[in-house]
Specification:
about 200 residues; 3 domains; 3-stranded antiparallel β-sheet; 5 helices; about 20% strand; flat
Length: about 200
């Protein structure tokens, strides 16, 4: 029997089925657990309304999944049906509520102490070439260093390399745009502004 961690997960996977819960897990049929019997779920106990989403997070998006207000059927919102549904519909999945990945700027900082490189690599840290392409690791099972291709590297040759740590710094959307724009600056102006337009840049009306 398949179990689910949430009402929404169970309902999306089984749109035609009722959902039951024992207070912890969710099922698509009534089951008797060690502690007590499962009970049929009332979706309003587990889902926020579309009205709440609009009030607190702006709007729904194409691809969001809701339960219809009256029929309680599972509906996937499309670009053509945004705003077609009333505030009492229930949210099963909404892009506005999903945790967004952190924006990070990656840089590589040289570690000049070879002793520190050896110590940290043996402890499991990876090191890189200056451009970030070459990765060096320590294979503890064989007591050998390997490069980014998986080839063994003789420890006597490691002193010939420069080792860089990968550093990730969290940035905001504004800084991300600036960094990407600076990368485009190396292109010709026509291509650069074309890419900026394709990415959604517009002049204010």
């Amino acid at each position: 029997m398949t179990t689910y961690d949430s009402y929404a997960e169970a309902k999306i996977a089984n749109p035609e089925s009722d959902v039951y819960s024992d207070g912890d897990l969710f099922f698509t049929s009534a089951v008797k657990t060690f502690m007590y019997d499962s009970a049929k779920c009332n979706p309003t106990d587990h889902c926020k309304t579309l009205g709440w989403l609009r009030d607190n997070h702006g709007a729904e998006f194409a691809g969001d999944i809701i339960l219809g207000h009256v029929s309680r059927n599972v509906i996937r919102i499309t670009q053509d049906t945004i705003k077609d549904y009333d505030d009492n519909c229930l949210i099963l999945r909404a892009a506005a509520l999903e945790e967004k990945p952190k924006r990070v700027k990656v840089s590589y900082v040289q570690e000049k102490s070879f002793k520190e490189v050896l110590k940290c690599a043996i402890d499991g840290e990876s090191f890189y070439s200056k451009d970030g392409n070459g990765e060096f690791k320590f294979d503890a099972s064989r007591l050998l260093f390997v490069n980014h291709n998986g080839a063994d590297v003789d420890i006597s040759h490691l002193t010939e390399h420069c080792f860089y740590r990968k550093v990730e710094t969290e940035i905001d959307e504004r800084q991300e745009f600036i960094d990407e724009a600076l990368k485009l600056y190396a292109c010709n102006a026509n291509e650069m502004f074309g890419k900026m337009y394709d990415a959604g840049c517009r002049f204010a009306d």
